[in-house]
Amino acid sequence: MKTSIVGKGLPKFDAWPKVKGTVVYADDFAMPGMLYAKVLRSRYPAAAILAVDTARAKASPGVKAVLTAADVPNNNLRAKFGQSTDVGAQFEGLYRVLAEKKVRYVGEPIALVAADSEQAAEAALDLIEVTYEQLPGVFDPVEALKPGAYCVGENDTNAVSRFKIRKGDVDAAFKAADVVIENTYRMPFSDHAYLEPESGVAWIDEHGVVTIRVSTQVIEHFRTVAEVLGVPHNRVRVIGTWVGGGFGGKEDITVESFLALLTWYTGRPVKLTYTREESLLAHSKRHPFTIRNKIGAMRDGRLVAAEVELIADAGAYTYLSPWVLLYSTVNAAGPYNIPNVKVDAVAALTNNPFSSAFRGFGAIQPNFAYESQIDELGRQLGIDPVTIRELNCLQKGDSLATGYAYDRELVLGELAGRAWEALGPPREAGDSPVKIGRGLAIGMMSYGRLTFLHDTSRSYVKLELDGSVLLRCGVPDLGAGQAQALCQIVAEELGVPMDKIKMYIADSALTPLAGTSTATRQLYMSGNATLKAARELKDRLIKKAAALLNSSPADLRLADETIADATAPDKVLPLKTVVGHCSSDGDELYSEAQFNAPFTTVPVSELITGQTFADFTFGAYAVEVAVDTETGEVTLEKAIACFDVGKTINKLNAEGQLEGGGAISVGYALMENLMVSQGNLQTRSFTEYLIPTAMDLPDIGTIMVETESGIGPYGAKGVGEPSSNAMAPAITNAIRDAVGARITSLPATAEQVFTTMKFRK
Amino acid sequence: MEFKQQVAIKVTVNGADIRAAVAPEESLLDFLRKQCGVTDVKCGCGMGECGTCTLVLAGKVVKSCLVLAAQADGREVWTLQGLERDPLAARLQDSFARHGAVQCGFCTPGMLIAARGFLQRSPQPTRAEIREALSGNLCRCTGYQKIVDAVWAVAYGDAAEQERA
Ligand code: FES
Ligand code: FES
Q1: Which residue ranges does the record assign to the 2Fe-2S ferredoxin-type domain (chain B) (predicted)?
Q2: Residues with Cβ within 8 Å of residue A476, at least 6 apart in sequence
Q3: How far is the CA of B129 from the centre of ligand 1 (A)?
Q4: d(CA A205, CA A207)
Q5: A332-385: pLDDT as tens digits
Q6: What is the C-alpha separation between A261 and A257, in angstroms, rounded?
Q7: Which of residues 498-537 of A touch B (CB under 8 A)?
Q8: Which residues in chain A touch residue B47, judged by CB atoms under 8 angstroms apart?
């Protein structure tokens, strides 16, 4: 479809205040008479809390409140994690505001302090006396699942959830297979490492509404906060700030409940901002997985069976583990057409930091395993990386392992081939200890939430009397251009320039609720809602203009702030004239539209079948690395991303997602390792938890294929999370190519690569 | 042990003279954000690891979380907001916005200050030199590529830019 504004790489409107430094992020905001909050956190990963004595802290100068679990009206909730539908206990977990009776992880919040200054609040933390009795704890999910294991929570099992897929007969297929490859892959905890630590300010407005201005991906948490306080939902308002990076780490509640409680008890505005160390300690992590992946193939390269076992470390609380596990189950065998598939997945509680959402959400971990496996298969059979994938990857009409037939455009083989080809001629390493290697990996990942969550979004578009446009949509903007995309859609439909559009985002009381900025869903969901609202207005404008111009509605076009008849050059009206006529008729030009994702029913058993997601994004990374055989050090020298983006809405922002998604996974592949030993976090700063700097990365070439086959506006697909998929195995496959070492544990640090090379059989 | 004494300082912040009493251990970053309302300098770590607090102190590009407020006594501090009329800062800002070098924007003010300081020293850099110069400023969103593009375009002018639309 031909578009004039959609697709353009226009600078996003929020780029201007951001380059001026005038955006008021969560911690940049202050209120008169504001108090400062601090959180007392558990020192032990597993302990009984025998007593918490706050008397001395309460008496400390400047302290206005010290709260413990006993002060929280509803301290234990079944968290719904932002969705409004009821999906049953197997997908929900305990959300506990403050620890009571028992602590489950180092850093678990136990008490809250609000004081006149940060120093006073900090000093009061030292005066709170917690009497612990240390308990043994369990730190490995396999141990945690054994009978008689220490129970992390109050239940008598540590199993959070289990899912499986059964297709065909894998045992018979393995027997008949010419080649069988089996490996176990391990991935560590990783941290989002957004540069803005968790932060917010809360106050009670003049009508008694608890108002929280916070950096969050989910303004719908106002409901959970209301339940914590025991007040009606409409007594809590969340105003989302421009977020300084989220990546899933600001998807669960961070500071909201703490702020609400403290402002509720003191009647004063309260600010809480985490330090970097606290941020690393306190928020969710990407799940560590151990994945046993066994594939069988015939000599011609055709896969006949895949058997995958996945064990995820959920950490100390459930949070989004069931959903992550379900994603990993559906993605376990990859975007391949395999007649026999058996998948078993389990997530277990441990006394480690809790795991939840992180860009890639359960798709990225199995991707590392299956793309390493297919690479190994190609090597064993002497089939090149592109061909082995082309032979096996899903084609339009093929069924996923769950039995769901994918009937949209699917060009995976082409994506792999183009990425590979774009690497160009290989660099000659010559006679040096540095070896050059190349790797390819493909991936699939959903955009939009699980279909049984019955997802919806709303957006409001209004034409002002002067022809300018107001857009209101409760979308949190994390920097990916979520808001900009909606403005471009409106500009396209109504023929108004971008600077005539003003947008308001992320206010649970004032903007129509658009759902979470998670699951790569906003362009798809709110994009469709906005498109629907804009088109509704457009229809009304055209109808009016047709009457005024005596034209046929089918001939009228909206462009450059006019409505013109394409068949008669003299028949043209300024947009605002038409708006004026509508207004005189009492036809106010506003529209609030809702978009509903496809709905399916909630899985009733562990066996996952049929449709689980509305659609998928497919892509490939091809890379070239240099490996120093004397040190094991890996340098990523070239990288190409080739993705079917459906349709580009903003070229710059889409490229930015591919570049940034690739970069974050270079960190995952080569350096990031959030180390936890017996429940204790070892990497407490950016000196220990290393993320890529500008020097660690090459330019990433981006190829965006536009099949216009997505279910987003104009055929767009989501790329935010899918773009982080496939980079890590592309790199480890390149290491394998360079030096023969198959990396099965991430990250592939110099030490890891060197040891793997050395002990290679 | 009581550390009650305050240090009286006089600092020029973005052109305005400020007299204040600060605690001896207070960082320049905290002083600016909390006492002066200068919030374009950000605190991503408070330990010199991320670069979000980068500013110009007495003509030098520094990480303000590593400098004590008391050390700024008698000196000039410039943050991004104060560089409104600085032509190089303005070109960089424009270039960052137009190249998509800004995603969440949290690293942006510090990144711009670092880039400006670098281009003043090396007006004709290679891409590798730009990457090296910015390696003390973390960005988790962009993968740095468009930031490098933006700096490059300022160094070499519009001819070096690709048509984006
Ligand atoms: S806040 Fe100063 S370097 Fe991070
Ligand atoms: S744009 Fe988000 S950290 Fe750089």
Answers
A1: 7-83
A2: A216, A217, A218, A219, A240, A243, A246, A482, A505, A506, A516, A517
A3: 22
A4: 5
A5: 999 999 999 999 999 999 999 999 999 999 999 999 999 999 999 999 999 999
A6: 6
A7: none
A8: 276, 685-687
A67-82 exposure pattern, b = at least 16 Cβ within 10 A, e = fewer: bbbebbeebebebbbb
- Which regions of chain B does DSSP assign to beta strands (E)? 7-13, 16-22, 54-57, 60-63, 76-78
Contact A711, A521 (CB under 8 A): no
What is the rounded CA–CA span in Å between residue A274 and residue A611?
40
Question: B29-50 as b/e, with b when 16 or more CB fall inside 10 Å?
Answer: bbbbbbebebbbbbbbbbbbbb
CA-CA distance, A9 to A54, in Å (whole number)?
56
Judged by CB atoms closer than 8 Å, whether chains meet at A700 and B145 is answered as yes
Say how far apart CA A720 and CA A656 lie, in whole Å.
Answer: 9
Q: Is A480 in CB contact (< 8 Å) with chain B?
A: yes
d(C-alpha A314, C-alpha A320), whole Å: 9
Query: Is A638 in contact with A423 (CB distance < 8 Å)?
Result: yes
Q: What is the DSSP code string of A288-333?
A: PEEEEEEEEE-TTS-EEEEEEEEEEEEETS-TTHHHHHHHHHHHTT
The answer to whether residues A310 and A304 touch, using CB atoms and an 8 Å cutoff, is: no
Q: Which two tokens stand for residue B48?
A: 């010199």
Per the DSSP assignment, residues forming a β-bridge with A103 are A47
Predicted pLDDT at A700: 97
Sign of the torsion angle spanned by Cα atoms A321, A326, A327, A332: positive
| Sequence-ordered list of residues with C-beta below 8 angstroms from that of B95, at least 6 positions apart, any chain | B101, B150, B151, B153, B154
Whether this prediction's pTM lies above 0.95 is answered by: yes
To which residue do tokens 């201007």 refer?
A16
Q: What are phi and psi of A640, to 5 degrees?
A: -125, 130
**Lookup: tokens for A293:** 């992946």
Question: Which residues are CB-contacts of A122 (< 8 A; sequence separation ≥ 6)?
Answer: A38
Distance CA A448, CA A436 (A): 38
pLDDT (tens digit per residue) in A685-744: 999 999 999 999 999 999 999 999 999 999 999 999 999 999 999 999 999 999 999 999
Do the Cβ atoms of A700 and B106 come within 8 Å? no
Angle CA A582–A3–A709, to nearest 5: 115
Burial class for A399, CB neighbours closer than 10 Å (0-12, 13-18, 19+): middle
Pocket test for ligand 2, best of B45, B53, B104, B147 (most atoms within 8 A of CB): B104
Q: Determine contact: B109 vs chain A, CB below 8 A.
A: yes
- Is B116 an 8 Å CB contact of chain A? no
Interface test with B, best of A195, A668, A685, A696 (most B CBs within 10 A): A195
Residue A217: what are its φ and ψ, rounded to 5°?
A: -90, -10
Nearest 5°: CA angle at A296, between A292 and A297?
Answer: 145
Residue at token pair 């000093």: A123
**pLDDT exceeds 80 at position A321:** yes
What is the helix (H) or strand (E) element at residue A232, kind and residue range?
A: none
Contact call for residues A578 and A545 (beta carbons, < 8 A): yes
Angle in degrees, 0-180, between the axes of helices B87-99 and B145-156, rounded to the nearest 10: 130
A698, exposed or middle or buried, with CB in 10 Å at 0-12, 13-18, 19+?
A: buried
Residue A87 structure tokens: 């999906």
With a CB cutoff of 8 Å and minimum separation 6, the contacts of B126 are: none
What six digits make up the tokens of B145? 């590529």
CB B79 within 8 A of CB B63: no
A262: nearest Cα among A212, A206, A306: A212
Q: Is A328 left (phi over 0), alpha (psi -120 to 50) or beta?
A: alpha
